[in-house]
Please model this.
Amino acid sequence: MIVAIDGPAGSGKSTTARAVADRLGWLYLDTGAMYRAVGLAFRAQGLPFTDAAARTLLPGLDVRLHPHPDGTRVTLDGHDVTDGIRTAQAADDASQVSKLGPVRQAMVALQRRVADGQDVVVEGRDIGTVVFPGAEVKFFLIADLDTRASRRLAQSGGAQARGSDGGLAAFQTVRSALADRDQRDQSRAIAPLKAAPDAVVLDTTGLTIDQQVEHVLDAVRTASPG
Ligand code: DC
Model:
């Protein structure tokens, strides 16, 4: 069975998808991590974000996700980039490379290969619409922008780094980076961020993580044969 969880940054996708996969003992597939690793490779080689550069880079590129008890480890050409892909720059670069047709083609093929023959919880932007349109369970998570920015700031430890303004400037920086990235992800020509027509749209603004997870698990139980 495939559980597809899509949505904008900070909507709760990763936390929910990881917890659901843990509870079910299924594979968790973080497709954003793949785009982030590709973005890192572009930056490391100083390449422009163009189709031509992607065509040069991709054939030799080895992006892998390794399930690990402490969370998925990500390698790029054999080097562990798990931490390196979590910076604000890496998020932005991922969004830039994810607009490119050759990159999307390669990543979608990789995602389908990894999931082949397994029960899997997959999170991303286009999982329910493009990668696995036949997924048995589809969720599209949303949350208001302030909530998403607060979550992102807390994850990056920024909530502790309050200056004399109480962290307002840091909050606004994160908030505006999120808004820009969502705008780019929603407006790109290929596989834009949007809910599949048959996805359950879940607003996580006022929900706890347990509540989000239960919503998805309920849908999995309903969709499970027997
Ligand atoms: O989920 P994330 O923040 O790690 O994703 C980083 C970027 O990768 C996101 O801004 C857009 C892109 N992405 C995508 O285009 N399609 C996916 N399935 C997953 C991520």
Observations:
- The mean pLDDT is 94.
- The radius of gyration is 17 Å.
- The pocket of 2'-deoxycytidine-5'-monophosphate is lined by residues 9, 31-32, 35-36, 91, 94-95, 98, 124-127, 181, 185 (CB under 6 Å).
